[in-house]
Amino acid sequence: MKNLEEIIKVSKGDELADLVIKNAKLVNVLSEEIYETDIAIIGDTIAGIDKGYKGKKEIDVNGAYVTPSFIDGHVHLESSMLMPSEFAKLVLASGTTTVIADPHEIANVMGLQGISFMREATKNLPLDVYMMLPSCVPATDLETSGVELNSYDLALLIDAPWVLGIAEMMNFPGVISCDNSVLSKIQLGLDKNKRIDGHAPHLGGKDLNAYVASGIASDHECTTSEEAIEKLRLGMYLMIREATGARDLEPLIPVMKQYNTRKCVFVTDDRHPKHLTKHISRMVKKAVKNGVNPIKAIQMASINTAEYFKLPNLGAIAPGYKADIAVFENLETFEPAMVFKNGQLVAQNGKTIVDMNAFKLPALRGSVNIKYLNLEDLQIKLPQSKNKIKVINVIPKQLITKLSVEIPKIKDNQAVSDIDNDILKIAVIERHKATGNIGLGFVKGFGLKSGAIASTVAHDSHNMIVIGTNDADMYYAAVELVKSQGGKIIVENGKTLAHLPLPIAGLMSDKPFEEVKQKIAELETASQKIGCQIADPFMSMAFLSLSVIPEIKITDKGLIDVKKLEVTDLFL
């Protein structure tokens, strides 16, 4: 950072800038216009925008479009299954230089230690990673998480400059009913003049008014124009999401074309590695392709997000702003020719040019701790006078599930997987405190004809989840995940077909992106080999334990009736 006198002299043209970007078509998100100019940079700061600046180094972009680089307003880094340095390598190349992360996943496993780990792993990257403190750890008391975080825990970190507020408040019923533990977390953010993010799907009317009046200022769960417009009218920031599983941008195009977009921001929420190579840039491209004004789209990817999170001097190209810049040949493909972070060239022609191998992970304890498991622990004995079971029905490409009542297949007085009718056994094994809790049930929709699949990525508490056609393969899969301290695995007849170890909190790999990508491809192939009918079975499986999404779910405490928010009997 240069001192003020140096910046002023460069701004006046009295001294050479460190870098001048010449002949740029500046996309000015402040005045909403495009015009040709030069951009003078000193250190990490923009000193001036005007014709005629001279620099120690000059780059002539020959009329290319220059925009502020992009900001992701809400992302769970853990969902990428990559080390933060590998995540940064991918998103920098597509023009993202700042993300606001919610370490909700690792916090459910490791609490404050997990949040501290993410801070240490990101603080020196050529990518600014700000954080929001997780508000719902755990999401409910119907599951066993690694820890519980209350407002006193969050108070230990709220004053950190890299903390921007309280992350998505999923417990909107708790807000509306004035639950003291929920309100204390909101008040903590308000007292520090920091943001509180929302998460309130389908909430409307007076209940939504109450939610907004509490101080919650954003929402990333809008899937229809009607819902989005109602929230905009009440002053909420609309976080338009394009995740791997939930893609809401296209349904909200009418809102972006017809309404004021200055309270709209782009977010990715949860993305797998294959969807990171094109990050916020792809959202900008899709919006423009669907008729959104390019300047408006770029605002949603930059200045709007910075202003919402109260990040001064970020998200625009103007004197005194941070020199975070992207250069595009056109405003159609949004493939950045160059990306600058703090005035330094970090990516060129779709490739990050910073050596990311220099960023080492801090140490972290193992997190897969289950009570000694026996094959018999997976058995479901049929109670007397009960001969029907409640079955979780997966709906393709949706997180909600439906309940059906079925007649189970019985073998040796046990309810077992019924391959012919696609009713498969599912187990959720507590993996944080070795309590021995195992929730057992049945699921329909995966279509497995043999073997088993298992994962330690299972929202929100990330216990081990296993689905299989037989107990032996389910047992084998669970044991293998203990050995690798987490991961995703597909097995058949007591042999591993594909395995992606995730030793970092059972959520992330310690390997390069290319290796993780290859392992994911092997998992996809293996899932098809054993007959799986779902394109991404691990994504669907991961949400079967999320006990806040209707209609029926399963946790380590058993089958969950989400409407009643209680454990329900498997048998009828």
What does this structure look like?
With 572 residues, the protein is an alpha/beta fold. It folds into two domains: 67-358, TIM Barrel (Alpha-Beta Barrel), CATH 3.20.20.140; 375-568, no CATH class. Helix content is 25%, strand content 28%. The chain contains 15 helices and 30 strands. The strands form six sheets. Strands 1, 2, 3, 4, 5, 14, 15, 16 and 17 form a nine-stranded mixed beta sheet that branches. An eight-stranded mixed beta sheet has the order 19-18-23-22-25-24-26-27. Strands 6-7-8-9-10 form a five-stranded parallel beta sheet. A hairpin with a 2-residue loop joins strand 20 and strand 21 (414-416). It is elongated. The N and C termini lie far apart (68 Å). The relative contact order is 0.13.
Summarize model confidence as the mean pLDDT: 95
> What kind of assembly state do the chains in view correspond to?
single chain
What is the rounded distance between the termini? 68 Å
Helix content: 25-40%
CATH superfamily of the largest domain: Metal-dependent hydrolases
Instruction: Could you tell me the CATH topology label of the largest domain.
Output: TIM Barrel
Low-confidence stretches: none
The level-1 CATH class of the largest domain: Alpha Beta
Task: Report the total helices.
Answer: 15
Q: Biggest sheet: strands, sense, closure?
A: 9 strands, mixed
Number of strands: 30
Return the structural class. Answer: alpha/beta
Total discrete domains: 2
Estimate the global geometry from the Cα principal axes: elongated
Strand content: 25-35%
